From TrEMBL:
Positions of the Thioesterase domain: 51-128
GO cellular component, one term: cytosol
Keyword Hydrolase: yes
Organism of origin: Albidiferax ferrireducens (strain ATCC BAA-621 / DSM 15236 / T118)
Keywords on record: Hydrolase
The organism's taxonomic lineage, starting at the top: Bacteria, Pseudomonadati, Pseudomonadota, Betaproteobacteria, Burkholderiales
Keyword Ribosomal protein listed: no
Entry similarity comment: Belongs to the thioesterase PaaI family.
Protein's UniProt name: Phenylacetic acid degradation-related protein
NCBIfam families referenced in this protein's UniProt entry, alphabetically: unchar_dom_1
Gene Ontology MF: a single term: 1,4-dihydroxy-2-naphthoyl-CoA thioesterase activity
CDD domains: PaaI_thioesterase
InterPro entries hit by this protein: HotDog_dom_sf, PAAI_dom, Thioestr_dom
Length: 140
Protein backbone atom coordinates (compact mmCIF):
# COMPACT_ATOMS: atom_id res chain seq x y z
CA UNK A 1 0.00 0.00 0.00
CA UNK A 2 1.47 3.34 -1.10
CA UNK A 3 2.03 5.62 1.91
CA UNK A 4 3.57 8.68 0.24
CA UNK A 5 1.53 11.91 0.31
CA UNK A 6 3.76 13.76 -2.15
CA UNK A 7 6.14 12.80 -4.96
CA UNK A 8 9.23 10.96 -3.74
CA UNK A 9 12.10 9.31 -5.58
CA UNK A 10 15.78 8.49 -5.16
CA UNK A 11 16.57 11.52 -7.33
CA UNK A 12 14.44 13.81 -5.12
CA UNK A 13 16.00 12.55 -1.89
CA UNK A 14 19.49 12.88 -3.36
CA UNK A 15 18.79 16.42 -4.55
CA UNK A 16 17.57 17.67 -1.15
CA UNK A 17 20.67 16.19 0.52
CA UNK A 18 23.32 18.14 -1.41
CA UNK A 19 25.69 19.99 0.97
CA UNK A 20 24.28 18.29 4.07
CA UNK A 21 25.63 15.68 6.51
CA UNK A 22 24.20 13.04 4.18
CA UNK A 23 26.37 14.31 1.34
CA UNK A 24 29.45 14.80 3.54
CA UNK A 25 29.30 11.23 4.90
CA UNK A 26 28.88 9.71 1.43
CA UNK A 27 25.36 8.34 2.00
CA UNK A 28 23.50 7.15 -1.07
CA UNK A 29 19.75 6.73 -1.46
CA UNK A 30 19.09 3.43 -3.21
CA UNK A 31 15.38 2.72 -3.43
CA UNK A 32 11.93 4.02 -2.61
CA UNK A 33 9.20 1.39 -2.38
CA UNK A 34 5.50 1.64 -1.65
CA UNK A 35 6.17 1.71 2.10
CA UNK A 36 9.94 1.95 2.59
CA UNK A 37 13.09 3.93 1.86
CA UNK A 38 16.55 2.36 1.53
CA UNK A 39 19.94 4.08 1.67
CA UNK A 40 23.52 3.15 2.49
CA UNK A 41 26.64 4.67 4.00
CA UNK A 42 30.26 3.68 3.32
CA UNK A 43 32.51 2.42 6.09
CA UNK A 44 35.61 4.53 5.39
CA UNK A 45 37.76 7.33 6.84
CA UNK A 46 34.72 9.65 7.02
CA UNK A 47 32.57 7.26 9.03
CA UNK A 48 34.91 5.12 11.15
CA UNK A 49 35.81 5.66 14.80
CA UNK A 50 39.43 5.21 16.02
CA UNK A 51 39.10 1.40 16.35
CA UNK A 52 38.28 1.14 12.64
CA UNK A 53 34.59 0.33 13.22
CA UNK A 54 31.68 2.24 11.76
CA UNK A 55 30.98 4.99 14.29
CA UNK A 56 27.73 4.30 16.15
CA UNK A 57 26.70 7.92 15.64
CA UNK A 58 26.92 7.44 11.87
CA UNK A 59 24.52 4.50 12.15
CA UNK A 60 22.15 6.83 13.99
CA UNK A 61 22.59 9.54 11.34
CA UNK A 62 21.64 7.00 8.66
CA UNK A 63 18.63 5.86 10.70
CA UNK A 64 17.47 9.40 11.43
CA UNK A 65 17.89 10.42 7.80
CA UNK A 66 15.75 7.53 6.60
CA UNK A 67 13.08 7.93 9.28
CA UNK A 68 12.90 11.69 8.84
CA UNK A 69 12.63 11.47 5.06
CA UNK A 70 9.98 8.78 5.38
CA UNK A 71 7.93 10.85 7.80
CA UNK A 72 8.26 14.02 5.73
CA UNK A 73 7.04 12.39 2.53
CA UNK A 74 4.30 10.41 4.32
CA UNK A 75 2.90 13.67 5.73
CA UNK A 76 0.46 15.92 3.84
CA UNK A 77 2.02 18.78 1.89
CA UNK A 78 2.83 21.78 4.06
CA UNK A 79 3.16 19.81 7.29
CA UNK A 80 6.56 19.44 8.93
CA UNK A 81 7.91 16.22 10.44
CA UNK A 82 10.44 16.76 13.22
CA UNK A 83 12.23 14.24 15.42
CA UNK A 84 11.12 13.68 19.00
CA UNK A 85 13.10 10.60 20.00
CA UNK A 86 15.47 8.10 18.45
CA UNK A 87 17.11 5.00 19.85
CA UNK A 88 19.58 2.53 18.41
CA UNK A 89 20.87 -0.86 19.40
CA UNK A 90 24.27 -1.66 17.90
CA UNK A 91 24.41 -5.41 17.28
CA UNK A 92 27.48 -6.07 15.16
CA UNK A 93 30.55 -4.02 14.28
CA UNK A 94 31.43 -3.21 10.68
CA UNK A 95 34.99 -2.42 9.51
CA UNK A 96 34.61 -2.15 5.74
CA UNK A 97 32.14 -2.03 2.87
CA UNK A 98 28.71 -0.49 3.23
CA UNK A 99 25.92 -0.44 5.77
CA UNK A 100 22.46 -0.34 4.23
CA UNK A 101 19.40 0.89 6.10
CA UNK A 102 15.75 0.25 5.37
CA UNK A 103 13.05 2.38 7.02
CA UNK A 104 9.42 1.29 7.32
CA UNK A 105 6.60 2.92 9.26
CA UNK A 106 5.31 1.32 12.44
CA UNK A 107 2.65 4.01 12.92
CA UNK A 108 1.54 6.90 10.73
CA UNK A 109 -0.83 9.08 12.72
CA UNK A 110 -2.21 12.57 12.40
CA UNK A 111 0.29 14.13 14.86
CA UNK A 112 2.99 11.48 15.31
CA UNK A 113 4.78 8.84 13.30
CA UNK A 114 7.02 5.97 14.40
CA UNK A 115 9.55 4.43 12.00
CA UNK A 116 11.66 1.27 12.34
CA UNK A 117 15.05 1.32 10.65
CA UNK A 118 17.09 -1.86 10.23
CA UNK A 119 20.76 -1.60 9.21
CA UNK A 120 22.67 -4.47 7.58
CA UNK A 121 26.24 -5.08 6.44
CA UNK A 122 27.19 -6.31 2.96
CA UNK A 123 26.61 -9.93 4.07
CA UNK A 124 23.02 -9.09 5.01
CA UNK A 125 23.70 -9.37 8.74
CA UNK A 126 21.79 -7.05 11.06
CA UNK A 127 24.22 -4.50 12.51
CA UNK A 128 21.87 -2.00 14.16
CA UNK A 129 18.16 -1.59 14.84
CA UNK A 130 16.70 1.84 15.41
CA UNK A 131 13.32 3.41 16.02
CA UNK A 132 12.46 7.08 15.60
CA UNK A 133 9.38 8.96 16.76
CA UNK A 134 8.44 12.00 14.72
CA UNK A 135 6.05 14.85 15.50
CA UNK A 136 3.92 16.03 12.59
CA UNK A 137 3.39 19.78 12.86
CA UNK A 138 0.74 21.87 11.09
CA UNK A 139 1.78 24.34 8.39
CA UNK A 140 3.34 27.55 9.72
Amino acid sequence: MLIWKRPISVAELTAISVNTAVDHLGMEFLEVGEDFIRARVPVDHRTQQPYGLLHGGVSVVLAETLGSCGAAYASPAGQLAVGLDINANHLKGVTSGWVTGTARPVHIGRTTQVWQIDLQNDAGELTCVSRITMAVLPPR
